[in-house]
C-alpha cells in the first residue's frame, strides 16, 4: 500500500515557551523579578527561560500553574513541542548532508513497486526511505543492513547490489510482520513440508495461500516478493525472532521448478542450520563452511522433491526420456513434471532445451497481491 501521509509544513522558526510566558507577564503587568519572587526561582533562571536558554522544567511548570493559574500541562506541552521542533531542525540540517546516500538505494524501483511514497524534496525522500528500513540514519542502515543475519540464494553470474538486496529483504520483513504465526516447531514444519510437496501440481492461486497458511502453523512466515533490479535473489531465509522464521521468494526465474526448489532449499536452511549469522551463496563471499551449508540445503531440496531411490529406479526403467514418461513419473511420485525436467537438466541428464514446455510459467499478478 502507498503511504498516504502527505508532507507536513514545518516552520523555519519555533518560539520557546519563554516567549509565551513573557506575553502573559506583560498582560498581567508582572515583572520577571515579581515572578521570580512568587515562584521562588532565581531571577536569572526566569530570564533564561524567557530567552530560551534554559528549559522549562515540570517543577517550574507547577509553580507557574500556582502563580499564573495556567495549567502545568500547558507549559510542559509547550516545552516539549519546542524541544521537538529544535530537534527536527537539527535533523533537517543533518539529513541535508546525507541525501547523497539515496544513490545507494533503488528509490525509483521501490516507488514503482509502491513500497515507498515519492517526494520531490530530497530530504523528505530520505526520511521516507529511512522509515522504510526502520533506521534513524544512513549510518544505522550500514550497521544493520550490511550485516543482516540471512541465508540467501543469489546469482553467482551477476553481482548483486547491496541496496537492492536490502530493500527486497526489508519488504519481506514488512509483509511477514502481517502474517500471524504459531511458535516455530521443527517437527510440525517437517510434516508441513510433506503436505506442501503435494501442492506442486496446483496452480499459483491454489498453492500460494496454502503454502502461507501451512507454514504459519509451524512458525514460518512465507512471503512472495517480486525482485527489483540488481537484487538478483531467488530466495532468502532468516529469523524475525527466536520463534518465527521467514522464507522469502522472488520468482526470479519464473518457472515452477525454480520456485519450488528455492522454497525447499530455504526450508532446508531452517531445519538444518538453525539461527546463524550472515550466509551468502558464491565462492567469492562464502567460506568453506558456508558452501557446505548451501550444498546441504540443495540436497535437502532435491531429495524431498524427488526421492533419490525413485529417481534412480525411473532412469533405469526407461530406455529414452520423453515428455510422456516424465509426466507419468511425476504422477507416480506426486509432483509437477516440470520439477523433474529441471532436475534432469541440472544433472545434465536432459539437455537444457528439452521438455521445457512441461515447466509451468509463473507471472506476478500485482493487483491480486494488493487485495
Automatic annotation (TrEMBL):
Coiled-coil parts of chain: none
UniProt cross-references to Pfam families, sorted A to Z: HTH_3 (PF01381), Peptidase_M78 (PF06114)
Residues annotated as domain HTH cro/C1-type: 29-75
Gene3D superfamilies: 1.10.10.2910, lambda repressor-like DNA-binding domains
Domain of life per record: Bacteria
GO molecular function annotations of the record: DNA binding
CDD domains: HTH_XRE
Family to which the UniProt record says this protein belongs: Belongs to the short-chain fatty acyl-CoA assimilation regulator (ScfR) family.
NCBIfam families: antidote_HigA
UniProt protein name: HigA family addiction module antitoxin
Organism: Halotia branconii CENA392
